[in-house]
Specification:
Mean pLDDT: 92
Strand order of the largest sheet: 1-2-3-4
Number of strands: 6
Strand content: 25-35%
Order of helices and strands: EEEEEE
Shape: globular
Number of helices: 0
Structural class: mainly beta
Helix content: under 10%
Length: about 80
């Protein structure tokens, strides 16, 4: 049985119990995050410190960004804090 898709775009797919981040791993590969593993969610203004120019990967090994060629032109950047 396929899960119900609540939202879908070129970057993410949101299902009833989890989120699939597309193009997360190099060279390709998706990451699934269960809602139960999410501690917090925040919306940030796109600045250099908030990942505006981070197209893919990490700069500090704490925050990771899936591939998004359009991130420098986005109005908002969303971050999810996960349980370890």
């Amino acid at each position: 049985m396929r899960p119900n898709t609540i939202y879908s775009d070129s970057l993410v797919k949101v299902y009833e119990t989890n989120i699939l981040f597309q193009n997360y791993y190099f060279p390709f590969g998706s990451k699934v995050v269960e809602f139960s593993d999410i501690l917090g969610f925040e919306k940030k203004s796109p600045t250099i410190l908030n990942g505006k120019w981070r197209i893919w990967g990490t700069g500090n090994f704490i925050v990771w960004y899936p591939l998004d060629w359009k991130r420098p032109r986005r109005n908002s950047i969303f971050r999810i804090r996960l349980a370890s």
